[in-house]
Write a structure and sequence with these properties.
890 residues, alpha/beta, six-stranded parallel β-sheet, 35% helix
């Protein structure tokens, strides 16, 4: 047993899993289905500048697909066991010799004890089905992420209907009515934001939505059908204990009545549960008849119940009713996995063992995905005094401002309806009158028709609608409203004086005002009584492993945030856009086709099992072929011809002739494809295609006007973080007016390295340079100067942003890249260079790549002797730096 002091409770497997994926991203993605790679590319901001998903959402999607396609839906404890023992996909020890962030060898005695403790905990509390937790802080878009994952599942299930990894149906659980209504976004969400339009049409044609928001709603799914999305409050599905004996009338008119089922038909006897004390409903039984069900749980901390810590630690674990329902579903139908989405991976500062991805509150604030927060605590003040200072402070900070056309809002929480209506509202009206603020800006939403009218509900729903009456409401009085499922981006403050019954409500309510608005960094204000302030601090510690003081990003003496403003006029350059058009030409079948099946390496299709005799000793790993687990369809000559004909849309007679006359022969072809069906699509079909068709490629170009930097949307500046000594601003006193005119399309340049900064200074000081602009810091939607290139590692088209654009005094242009010496020969760097060079040559400009050591040791544009020679190919020419000579063409 490991000593208690030896165990590091902050150790998290999900971080190790993410580190493994990041390290091997290119290799892993290359093994995905083509459809999956297209889906990821569409949502990857590095490859698609208009991608909709935020970084945390996309990373969670990457982890979701990684577990699905690469790890094949392994349970978390199984993945962890493989990882700690370097088995299967984790067999290469070079990836794991250093534990991320802790510089600790994975296989030291201390770490082995720790991982063994974690493994036992994971295994002990596992479910019979894979169970994963995705923890994204409130405001990062868990609902959209959930919808994206479901759309991905259905696309792959439609393409590969026999693959058991993919969900054919989705059951989405919400913990309460508030969250249930927010899940309507799955139904109304524009799929083309996360799904390529050509595939979105496939989803629209097949998906069937079922929204169960009323107790009596019947679930109208067709038994054994696919692509149903059922969105439900848990109480609409849940299996409950019978509390009363059925009356004769209930027995007569129940769906299980033998009398009525004789007339109308009823459920088969096998549908009845063995536990006669359980009462299931129509919706539950319909769900049991849907294949390949994926269960998605929103706000998943409700799934574990109030005593989660006891559940994790206790041997006599009590399941929540929702967990019971999911387990019963798993026992009666095929559940692919249960996917839980929650705001935190912690419970009472204890990491949940089945978390596979997490993006915390602290990181979300620091990286600009949420507003910052300024918590203010009040001690020894009366409620009226509290409210007076709150309103005055709020109005001084936010009054008269607009954010994306929206007025800033303050949510004021009352303890109950009576207090809201008879104390808070009159006091608030008096305070506003003293500030000359119209009382029409007050909205009261307390769930009581006496005080909250239909117009109030409509205005509450329109708080974030510019130009609406709801947007004019800025002081919102609530009673336990909006703790979950309420999204108001224009909320800039919350006030909570009375201590609520639930301590977590303090955390949930305060986080309502942290949703991001505008591209600029914003700060909300949290007004709390001292008791609630302490409660918030405690809840942050339990749920996010942080304290109030951690909300503010700690200062770094070497790195600060800079506000970067665009300077007029817009700088542009004309570059060539290059693309290739492909034409398909049919040709006549002329003779036998050689599939070369004898040369095909079939071992890459083998299913293999790795087994070790013991974990206690360092024994060898046994490798065993288990092809028998593969579900390969057995083709006859007739069905194989049909499959190929359908795939290529050519004559069955011609396919039969090609296979029959092939060098390999029909028998050899059938033997190979029946052993591994994938051979059809990897070998047989491509060979037949090239025997019948030729593809020709024509390169085309067109001029495009490239803007180096655009004004930010909904903000006056961009924000960048950089070390102080790597920042150059237009206000630098050492700059002359002539030098300022030569550069600075932005008022601040934040360089990543000393060679970049040195390159800028050398070009700026040189008389050979007319203009020089640093472009490498501006990516995505900030500027148009980018190059698409083929990434040989991930086998995808990605986007690359060169470091500098220079206009020389002779009228020529240079596109410049600065790279560390160790990166010059990197395969990806070379791919970037080739793509940039192709565009540069077509556009009549030079592309130059400098090694960092060359810049720091020589005058790259002068006549000083060079200490390092570096040759950079440029089309048919080369750029060469030689001793005592400037750069010249060779």
């Amino acid at each position: 047993m490991a000593k208690k002091s030896d165990f590091d409770s902050s150790f998290s497997f999900y971080q190790q899993l993410w580190y493994y994926y990041q390290t091997n991203r290119g290799k892993i993605r290359s093994r995905y289905n083509d459809l999956t790679r297209k889906f990821l590319t569409y949502n990857d901001n590095e490859e698609n500048s208009s991608a909709f998903l935020r970084k945390p959402q996309f990373e969670a999607l990457e982890m979701y697909i990684f577990i699905k396609e690469f790890m094949r839906n392994q349970q978390v404890y199984e993945m962890f066991d493989d990882w700690r023992n370097r088995r299967n996909n984790f067999s290469d020890a070079s990836y794991y010799s250093v534990e991320k962030d802790r510089k600790m060898s994975l296989f030291s005695p201390l770490t082995e004890k720790q991982t063994d403790t974690i493994f036992k905990q994971m295994k002990k509390y596992r479910e019979t089905y894979p169970n994963y937790i995705y923890a994204l802080t409130m405001g990062l878009g868990k609902t959209i992420l959930m919808a994206t994952c479901i759309f991905y599942e259905f696309l792959l299930a439609n393409k590969y209907p026999k693959d058991k990894r993919f969900c054919h149906n989705a059951l989405v659980f919400a913990p309460d009515k508030t969250v249930l209504q927010s899940l309507r976004e799955i139904m109304t969400f524009d799929k083309t934001k996360v799904v390529p339009p050509e595939y979105a049409r496939v989803l629209d044609a097949n998906i069937k939505f079922h929204f169960l928001d009323e107790t009596g709603t019947i679930l109208h799914t067709i038994d054994d059908s696919d692509f149903n999305i059922i969105i439900s409050n848990t109480q609409k599905i849940i299996v409950k204990k019978k509390r009363t004996t059925e009356t004769p009338g209930q027995i007569l008119f129940s769906g299980n009545s033998a009398l009525l089922s004789t007339v109308y038909g009823g459920d088969d006897e096998n549908d009845a549960w063995n536990d006669t004390t359980l009462m299931d409903n129509q919706r539950f039984k319909k769900l049991c008849r849907l294949p390949q069900l994926g269960v998605y749980v929103d706000e998943a901390h409700h799934l574990f119940g109030a005593d989660l810590e006891k559940q994790i630690r206790s041997s006599s674990t009590k399941k929540t009713s929702l967990r019971d329902t999911i387990n019963l579903l798993a026992a009666n139908t095929s559940i692919v996995a249960c996917y839980n989405y929650t705001g935190t991976p912690y419970v009472k500062n204890q990491l949940l063992p089945e978390v596979v991805y997490a993006y915390g509150l602290r990181e979300s604030i620091w990286n600009g995905f949420l507003k910052d927060a300024d918590p203010i605590g009040y001690e020894n003040v009366k409620s009226e005094e509290f409210l007076t200072d709150v309103v005055n402070t709020f109005w001084n900070r936010y009054g008269g401002k607009l954010y994306e056309g929206l007025n800033p809002k303050l949510a004021i929480y009352a303890a109950n309806v009576e207090e809201a209506a008879t104390e808070v509202k009159p006091t608030l009206e008096k305070i506003l009158a003293n500030l000359n603020i119209p009382t029409s800006k007050i909205l009261i939403n307390v769930g009581d028709a006496k005080y909250t009218k239909n117009d109030d509900i409509r205005n509450f729903n329109n708080l974030d609608v510019p130009g609406s009456e709801g947007n004019d409401k800025q002081f919102i009085i609530l009673v336990e409203k909006g703790k979950e499922g309420w999204n108001c981006r224009s909320l800039f403050g919350i006030a909570l004086f009375r201590s609520p019954n639930s301590k977590v409500f303090v955390l949930q309510a305060t986080m309502r005002c942290m949703r991001k608005i505008t591209n600029a960094a914003q700060t909300a204000t949290i007004f709390l009584s001292k008791e609630n302030y302490d409660t918030l601090d405690n809840e942050l510690h339990k749920n996010f492993n942080m304290e109030i003081k951690d909300i503010k990003k700690p200062s770094d003496n070497n790195r600060h945030t800079y506000k970067v403003h665009v300077l007029p006029p817009p700088r542009t350059i004309t570059l060539k856009r290059i693309w290739h058009e492909y034409s398909l030409h049919e040709k006549k079948y002329t003779g036998p086709v050689d599939f070369k099946l004898k040369d095909v390496d079939l071992s890459k299709y083998e299913s293999t099992r790795y087994e070790s005799d013991t974990l206690a000793r360092n024994t060898t790993v046994k490798k065993q072929n288990i092809d028998y687990v593969q579900e390969n369809m057995k083709f006859s000559a007739f069905t194989l011809v049909g499959e190929i004909s359908r795939y290529l849309n050519i004559s069955c007679i011609l396919v039969s002739k090609i296979l029959g006359e092939s060098v390999d022969g029909m028998d050899a072809v059938l033997d190979a494809v029946n052993r591994y069906n994938t051979v059809i699509y990897d070998c047989i079909i491509p060979t037949i295609f090239h025997a019948l068709f030729d593809i020709t490629s024509v390169q085309k170009t067109e001029d495009r006007n490239v803007v180096l930097l655009r004004e930010p949307k909904n903000a006056g500046y961009y924000e960048f973080s950089a070390k102080d000594d790597l920042v150059v601003t237009v206000h630098d006193p050492i700059l002359t007016s002539k030098e300022i005119k030569k550069s600075f399309h932005a008022d601040t340049y934040c360089f990543d390295s000393i060679p970049e900064r040195e390159c800028f200074w050398q070009y700026l000081k040189s008389n050979k340079v007319k203009e020089i602009y640093f472009t490498g810091m501006f990516t995505s939607n900030q500027g148009d100067l980018s190059v698409n290139y083929y990434d040989p590692e991930s086998r995808r088209i990605r986007t690359y942003y060169p470091d500098f654009l220079a206009k020389m005094t002779d009228g020529s242009y240079q596109l410049i890249e600065v790279k560390g010496d160790n990166k010059i020969d990197d395969e990806v760097v070379q791919a970037k260079k080739d793509a940039a060079q192709e565009i540069a040559v077509a556009s009549g400009i030079k592309y130059i790549m400098y090694a960092g050591s060359t810049i720091t040791s020589t005058h790259i544009l002068g006549d000083e002797p060079a200490k390092v020679q570096y040759t950079m190919p440029l089309g048919k020419n080369s750029i060469v730096a030689e001793k005592g000579q400037p750069l010249k063409e060779k």
